[in-house]
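Key result, reporting period 2: structure in, sequence out.
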């Protein structure tokens, strides 16, 4: 691996001062930053993983109203936690948060410890989240490395490609410049927030606003005019899939299915089938009416599923028939006024909201 820092530090002392001054003037005050307790920082950082900030803000506020402290979270059921997480995706994060809350209640009396070694033993807390909690909540000099910070570094160094080894080197470089004091403008938490928001607001993936960047004077990508091509775009193959959703209805009750494993474990789905199997299911269910609902698209990391929902008005078949048609995952008839209490992926929630009155 080529040397990441051929000479000097990541940023100069003047650039550090300019960065912190920029953040003071332009930084966005997110709700978790108003009162950065260890618990609030922990929840916000997990929410922000693989989620856009705008989507996390409302969820965070509602979460804190429902689970105001770790003890309240530890006493919640998995279904309550999944429901509170509904719409954020990657639901394993929510399940891990619940496991973490139970662990913290049993081992630490409902508080987060303030050492790295203890934090990474908490279920669902890895290197990044431990560093965020230590710096933002406890004021300790632990740099954090997210996609925004990595992108800034790639442009500062003019590095189009980036390997896993560079992350370790970058953390070492950040460790050399992160403030050690914890007060005023110069604190570890402010430094980390400033870098992350600089990537979010200025050093964006597309159309970076170099004229507003406090680090522009030392940026090799800007000097060579290569901001648009750094970092190199990720190559991703997306697979296509079509599924027919059979929303079976009987006297304002709807059949839902709870997934027991895999993606969406614990969530409630509308039973589905491949398009070529729908005719057989229709013959078996003998609906009095079939109403098409609006098509939806469910996006995953590596595939795109087109959902074609149908509302089947039919008498309820025997349980054995339903299991034969839709598999062994638990099936449940849910009254219309109780649909909202069953946590579902956001695209399925929109389909349920489309049910004709």
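The corresponding designed sequence is given below.
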């Amino acid at each position: 691996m080529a040397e990441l820092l051929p000479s000097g530090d990541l940023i100069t002392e003047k650039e550090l001062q300019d960065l912190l001054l920029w953040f003071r003037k332009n930084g966005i005050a997110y709700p978790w930053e108003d009162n950065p307790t260890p618990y609030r920082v922990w929840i916000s950082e997990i929410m922000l993983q693989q989620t856009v900030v705008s989507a996390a803000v409302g969820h965070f506020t509602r979460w804190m109203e429902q689970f105001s402290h770790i003890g309240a979270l530890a006493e919640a059921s998995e279904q309550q936690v999944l429901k509170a997480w509904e719409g954020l995706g990657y639901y394993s994060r929510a399940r891990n948060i619940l496991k973490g809350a139970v662990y913290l209640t049993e081992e630490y009396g409902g508080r987060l410890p303030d050492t790295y070694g203890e934090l990474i033993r908490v279920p669902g807390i890895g290197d990044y989240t431990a560093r965020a909690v230590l710096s933002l909540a406890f004021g300790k000099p632990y740099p954090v490395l997210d996609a925004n910070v990595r992108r800034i570094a790639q442009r500062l160094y003019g590095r189009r490609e980036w390997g896993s080894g560079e992350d370790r080197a970058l953390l070492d470089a950040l460790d050399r410049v992160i403030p050690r004091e914890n007060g005023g403008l110069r604190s570890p938490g402010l430094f980390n927030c400033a870098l992350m928001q600089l990537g979010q607001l200025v050093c964006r993936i597309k159309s970076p606003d170099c004229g507003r960047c406090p680090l522009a004077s030392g940026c090799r990508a800007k000097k060579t005019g290569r901001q648009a091509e750094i970092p190199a775009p990720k190559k991703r193959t997306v697979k296509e899939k079509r599924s027919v959703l059979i929303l079976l209805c009987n006297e304002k009750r709807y059949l839902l299915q709870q997934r027991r494993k895999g993606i969406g474990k614990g969530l409630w789905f509308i039973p589905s089938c491949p398009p070529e199997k729908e005719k057989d299911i229709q013959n078996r269910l003998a609906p009095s009416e079939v109403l098409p609902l609006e098509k939806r698209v469910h996006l995953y990391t590596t595939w795109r599923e087109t959902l074609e929902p149908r509302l089947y008005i039919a008498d309820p078949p025997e349980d054995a028939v339903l299991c034969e048609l839709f598999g062994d995952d638990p099936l449940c008839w849910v009254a219309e006024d109780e649909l909202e209490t069953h946590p579902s992926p956001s695209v399925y929630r929109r389909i349920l909201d489309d049910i004709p009155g």
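The longest helix spans residues 92-108. The radius of gyration is 24 Å. This case is discussed further under Risks and Mitigation.
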